[in-house]
Amino acid sequence: MVLAPARIVTRVFIAVIKTHTGQYMSEPILFADLALSAPVLKAIQAVGYEVPSPIQAAAIPILLDGGDILGMAQTGTGKTAAFALPLLSKLDLSQNEPQILVLAPTRELAIQVAEAFQKYAADMPGFHVLPIYGGQDMTSQLRQLKRGVHVVVGTPGRVMDHLRRGSLNLNNLKSLVLDEADEMLRMGFIDDVEWILEHTPETRQTALFSATMPREIRKVADNYLRDAKEIKIASTQQTGDNIEQVYWMVSGTNKLDALTRILEVEPFDGMIIFVRTKTATVELAEKLEARGYSAAPLNGDMNQQLRERTIERLKTSKLDIVIATDVAARGIDVERVSHVVNYDIPYDSEAYVHRIGRTGRAGRSGKAILFVAPREKRLLYTIEKATRKPITLMELPSGATVTKHRIDQFTQQITDVLTEQSDLSFFNDLLAEYGRTNDVSPEQIASALAYLVQKERPLQVKFTDVKPERNDRSERRERGERDERRGSREDRPRRDRSDENMERYRIEVGRNHDARPGDIVGAIANEAGIESRFIGHIKLFDEFSTVDLPAGMPKEVLQHLKKVRVRNRPLEISLDQGGSRGGYRDNSDKPRFKERDFGGRDKPRFKDRDNSGSGKPGPRSRKFD
Question: Is the pLDDT of residue 476 over 60?
Fold first, then answer.
């Protein structure tokens, strides 16, 4: 039985009330209860969906009824299906022009959403969806648009390019979706989004989804949505129970050696290793390949074709390990990823949750391993507090453990050959003759052959074993007692960003070089892998500037930042020695701009950067498209 829209809304309302009051629904809503079209229902039944998630149960009836939606939901809550299923149900396949437009912040997300539309429209003959994004061949996009498509999923920059060319006709657009709007704001695309909105029919239906609701996003909603229904799915930032989380305290052992030991003994299918910089993805991939692992980098400097091919190789088991940055890995959905390694700890707990969410997909179990330097303990505690789950200290595999593991593998190979090869008579005769001729025993011959086989990968591993740092729970208790006496960090008044969690750095670019705070934020955020909200006060002087960054910045990150250019000048970043802290030497040194705290709600609007990754402003090359 299919329920009427009004009755569906009533049941959803009751479901939300019961959920928030801790009561369980006696009559859970099923997809079959919703007024979705028969082909869409058939497709979701084929993929095994039965019960809609909270965001799906709330959004589908409203979108089916033609209403606008302002939804607050994190990645992983099922919001793609929340808008794709009802919009597909209303699609007119006889009309061969775009009826649905989805704007996404990154090319990876655009591809993922387009694939979801294709999956849900499996039983809709003649359906066409087209992802459009920068870095992809424009000729192919033009040809497919001319042929006719029903759904377009694109990044703002490339959608604008097609609108200016006249190759994308939105005259018959019925529905527009803004996916991850806050991410588009963070990446500097919000002005482009508004420009696109102004070039769409006023009669369109609009759905805006965002994990957070900064005032700029609220303003867009107020200006472009009509009587929108607000849906808020509470974010707990908790990680899945099917993901085992452990950490290793970096102490006395090289991180690469530690990673190699883990790879030796940890049974994994596919793996993603997260690092902070694009350079590190290449360097680590090369080092792992030299050690015999099937590894490849994934970063923003790679062209889109290569990035897609890398992900496809991971999906099809032609590649086992991908080393990626946060931005490059956004949107990766590969079921065989059994392990995630945070080689470099993220500065943000949300980034950590997003990273480890790449494993444990489709109900499978996963494992997340986190490398933590002693100076990064604070970040570990922050992640544990945000995710509300303890991360267990792991013991690094010893040399003896690795040796045993290699021996087990070696002996298993011998067993497999003896089991699978029924006729070894040629080799028996050959070695028996060799033994008689040279007067050596079968054991000596076997030992020599074993040595040859393991020469490139010796069975006897020689590691300098270092005991992992003890998990000092008393330190946590003391910290808890201090917080109890003084109030938690969230309860205390916010202090200046130059506290013990931040350090002040000097960079050799200033007002006389036409530098702006946005240029500095963009360069550091893009090249150091630090989200803009973790970049503190910026002060501009005539010949230099200062910027507050998280304490404990890795040396390799600082070395990389020294070469990054802003306004065609290298940053030459160095720890500030205090010369710029004690006021201004004269009025000429005083910043002309009011200080802004980029770590708070007033986030900068990133401008498009050139493809060199230098941080200096360039033409609208749409680096993030």
Answer: no
Query: pTM for this one?
Result: 0.46
Q: Residue 595: which of 529, 544, 542, 548 has the closest Cα?
A: 548
Instruction: Point out which residues pair with 177 in neighbouring strands.
Output: 102, 207
Listed in order, the ranges of the chain carrying CATH 3.30.70.330 are: 497-625
The per-residue pLDDT for range 133-162, each reduced to its tens digit, is 987 778 889 999 999 999 999 999 999 999
- Predicted pLDDT of residue 622: 34
The two tokens of residue 558 are 């600082």
Predicted local confidence at residue 41, as pLDDT = 92
What are the respective helix, strand and coil percentages of the chain, to the nearest 5? 45, 15, 45
- The whole-angstrom separation of Cα 244 and Cα 356 is 10
Q: List C-alpha distances in Å: 522 to 156, 332, 603.
A: 18, 24, 11
Do residues 469 and 251 lie in contact, with contact meaning Cβ atoms separated by under 8 Å?
A: yes
Radius of gyration of the chain from its Cα atoms, rounded to whole angstroms? 28
CATH topology of domain 497-625: Alpha-Beta Plaits (3.30.70)
Per the model's pLDDT, the better-predicted residue between 252 and 311 turns out to be 311
Give percent of the chain with pLDDT exceeding 70.
76
- Cβ neighbours of residue 24 closer than 8 Å, sequence gap 6 or more: 18
Backbone CA torsion sign across 62, 64, 67, 72: positive
| Numbered ranges of CATH 3.40.50.300 in the chain | 5-232, 243-398
pLDDT tens track for 198-252: 999 999 999 999 888 888 999 999 999 999 999 987 654 555 678 899 999 887 6
Residue 601 in 3-state DSSP?
coil
pLDDT of 331: 65
Q: Return the structure tokens found at 167.
A: 């190759």
Instruction: Name the token pair of 488.
Output: 């938690």
What's the rounded Cα separation, in Å, for the pair 335 and 353? 17
Bridge partners, 70 (sequence order): 208, 230
Q: Is residue 624 a contact partner of residue 327, using CB atoms and an 8 Å limit?
A: yes
pLDDT tier at 118 (50, 70, 90 boundaries)? very high
What's the Cα-to-Cα distance from 196 to each of 129, 192, 201, 399, 529, rounded to whole Å? Answer: 19, 6, 10, 59, 29
What's the CATH fold of domain 5-232? Answer: Rossmann fold (3.40.50)
Enter the CATH code of domain 243-398. Answer: 3.40.50.300
Cβ-contact 229, 69 below 8 angstroms:
yes
